[in-house]
Amino acid sequence: MTETTFVGGKEMTLDGSNVGFHRERVEAWERGERIAPIFMDIAWTRKCQAACHFCYAQAQSSEGGEITREHAMQFLEDAAEIGVLSMHYISDGESTMVPWYADAVEKATDLGVAVGAGTNGIATTKPVLERVLPRLTSFRVNFSAGEKKRYAEIMGLKQAVYDIVIENIRTAVELVRGNDWPCIVNMNLVCDPRDSDQLVPFARLAKNLGVHYAIIKHCAVDPDGVLDVDYTAYNQIEDILKEAESLSDDTTQIVIKWKKIRKAGKREHTACYGPPFALQMSGNGLIAPCGPLFNEKYRAFHIGNITTERFRDMFHGERYWEVMRYIASDEFNPQKRCPSDCMQRLHNDWLFAYKHGHATFPLTPAPANVNFLA
């Protein structure tokens, strides 16, 4: 069952999977047909001004090119042509650092592809916000603290940046609420249990700024131990998480991703079915089934790179589907070969249950963010 949360006047899935609402594509996939991703998580660069100690990009280093404006526009045209419905500009880099960022938002939405943005908020000044917010379905600022000093420590930035980002969030809220734009403004805290002192201050800050909702989520852990997080420690901070959640009001929802936190990194599925529905692209142009497989040592799973090949050609080529078939086969068990969590995790749970007769298509109305699978 997919649970929804009422935010900004809309029912949205914030801690679950929307894949079951896409019956036509699920049934086509089940028949063995080649389906376009419903959703893609992408970046336009791997660069970032921050140095968050929990950032998964540390484990994703791979060879690749530099995405130019021309590459980006061709990629967006190709994605729309094959039937991609939505994208998040997040992945493994700070996409607002490219000079054509707003152009890429406008291009995608002109093509009918819905776009949500994830950013550290440093470069999203008022002129940028005025261009992109009327186009975006959501605007998320990754802000993993509540207090200035701790923000600087956790995110690897100078304390002065805290005030810059706060002002940009405040401007985004004023623009969206003042113009009644449909964009949902939210904040995102990646919770390392060792930084739990910032959960309640973060929730209070989010309420003060008036964002539609604020997410508190788990840390991802890579299989090589680059990121060291004790998943059992989330049990020890449950009371703090609940205190932060209790600060929700009619203006701002504080949302804890309980489903992933309580799974403690354990996977029920023994095959990976999610990537045909929710695909990822690195900020160097690499297309791979998921972010954890971006690293160069997983080259066997790399599909192609938009700096050297058109995305539509990849999609129609054999390499794309060879990789998809392999990760869905009995030869690939994500319980043994994957990190404890990934973007496709909850979609995989639903698709695996569906494949084995334990899940059915939802009968409830689709949520407002139905085309977003992250």
Question: What's the alpha carbon Rg, rounded to whole Å?
Answer: 19 Å
Q: How many angstroms does the end-to-end distance come to?
A: 16 Å
Strand content: 5-15%
The sequence of SSEs as H and E is EEHEHEHEHEHHEHEHEHEEEHHHH
> Mean of residue pLDDT?
92
Q: What is the share of helical residues?
A: 25-40%
Discrete helix count: 13
Q: What characteristic shape results from the CA principal axes?
A: globular
Could you name the ranges where pLDDT drops below 50 across 5 or more consecutive residues? none
Q: Order of strands across the widest beta sheet?
A: 9-8-7-6-5-4-3-10-11-12
Structural class: alpha/beta
Number of strands: 12
Q: What composes the largest sheet?
A: 10 strands, mixed
Model description:
The chain is 33% helix and 14% strand. It is built from 13 helices and twelve strands. It has helices at 23-30, 69-82, 101-110, 126-132, 148-155, 159-179, 199-209, 238-245, 258-263, 311-316, 318-327, 334-337, 345-355, and strands at residues 5-7, 10-12, 39-42, 86-89, 114-119, 138-142, 184-191, 213-218, 253-256, 278-281, 286-288, 304-305. Strands 9-8-7-6-5-4-3-10-11-12 form a ten-stranded mixed beta sheet. Strands 1-2 form a two-stranded antiparallel sheet.
Write a short abstract of this structure.
This protein has 13 helices and twelve strands. The chain is of the alpha/beta class and 374 residues long. The protein has a ten-stranded mixed beta sheet. Strands 1-2 form a two-stranded antiparallel sheet.
